[in-house]
Design goal:
Length: about 350
């Protein structure tokens, strides 16, 4: 079980409370920092029969073996269920299959009742791990709330979220809220480098500093993104159709996000000279930003925001991306370098 270095201190604090855990904790923090890994390590450590001196699960006892096999009798994990039909209409546009549904259903929560009504398999703690908690809808959230209001003895609810404001306030108030630390940039870079990642600093910038998001960027995607950036650097002289070809396979969400980050840095370079996502390309972005038409850029950003909102169900992804790329080339009032 992994505890990332930026969570070590919190781990020590929390595991020190082993004998007096609250009945519900809400692990909240930004995406891509390892909240779920932390929750899983916590669950396995609390269930372990012979925890190690540092509080971690031993990895050898009956409990740890059940945990590893995914069939621990004193643990229930609630997450959005695999649903083949749910993502079917997105398959063509996003090029991915077997999507998860976005919802933890009321039936899933109600099915907990039996588990909560039983006494522990081993006369110890039982744990419900629920993630992401923002996947609860109104019905399932209310069903869960009833359980949190009358918590059975010896049960710990662990909720994980990167979007706490989307939870029912009454659920939040029933949980001990734990803010999961976001790593310092230097620590995140060191950790990524330790995972064998090159250009750790640039990757971190691009994903906003979250190390696990940076880790997930695969090399092919990095190369394709670099190709797209090379086109975008050409500003008004960019070939919109060549650019479409570089990103359409990744899907419209990916493309719009890449354009949002790019135009964020263009605007920021234009106004303040600062670059947030494309640190290695700062100099040429600042050069490009000199020729940008500010009102058009702001309009374009609004357009991207709209495209982002509707990107789950695009009418025609390729046409939409084409149109965006053409409009991008029109942002530049003065001719840019070829
Ligand atoms: Zn163990």
């Amino acid at each position: 079980m992994i505890i990332y270095p930026w969570h070590n201190e919190l781990w020590q604090q929390l595991i020190g409370m082993r004998s007096r855990m609250p009945h519900a904790v809400l692990l909240q923090g930004r995406m891509g920092i390892g909240k779920l890994d932390f929750a899983q390590a916590l669950a396995s450590a609390l269930l372990c029969d012979r925890p190690l001196p540092d509080g971690h699960a031993c990895g050898n006892c009956d409990s740890c073996n059940w945990y590893a096999q995914g069939n621990h009798p004193d643990l229930r994990v609630l997450e959005p269920e695999e649903s083949a039909t749910n993502g079917a209409d997105e398959e063509a546009t996003e090029g991915k299959s077997a999507k998860k549904s976005q919802i933890i259903s009321v039936d899933q929560v109600r099915n907990l009742a039996e588990f909560l009504g039983l006494s522990s398999h081993r006369a110890g703690l039982r744990i419900v791990l629920l993630h992401p908690a923002e996947a609860l809808n109104a019905a399932s959230a209310n069903a869960l709330l009833k359980m949190l209001e009358e918590p059975p003895p010896e049960v710990l609810f662990v909720l994980v979220t990167h979007n706490p404001q989307r939870l029912l306030p009454t659920i939040r108030s029933r949980c001990n809220k734990i803010d999961m630390p976001f790593p310092e940039r230097r620590l995140a870079e060191e950790w990524l480098a330790g995972q064998g990642i090159q250009h750790a600093a640039e990757r971190l910038s691009y994903v906003g500093g979250a190390p696990l998001l940076a880790l997930k960027v695969e090399e092919g995607a990095e190369k394709r993104l670099a190709d797209l950036h090379r086109e975008l650097h050409r500003g008004g002289r960019m070939d919109p159709f060549a650019s479409v070809a570089l990103c359409i396979k990744e899907g419209i969400t990916y493309t719009v996000e890449a354009l949002q980050k790019w135009t964020h840095d263009l605007l920021s370079a234009h106004l303040t000279g600062e670059i947030r996502y494309h640190a290695l390309q700062a100099a040429s972005l600042q050069e490009l930003a000199k020729g940008v038409d500010l009102p058009k850029l702001l309009d374009f950003q609004r357009l991207l925001n709209e495209a982002r909102r509707s990107s789950q169900h695009p009418l025609n992804a390729e046409l939409q991306v084409e149109s965006l790329m053409i409009q991008y080339t029109q942002l530049f009032a003065t001719p840019t370098k070829p």
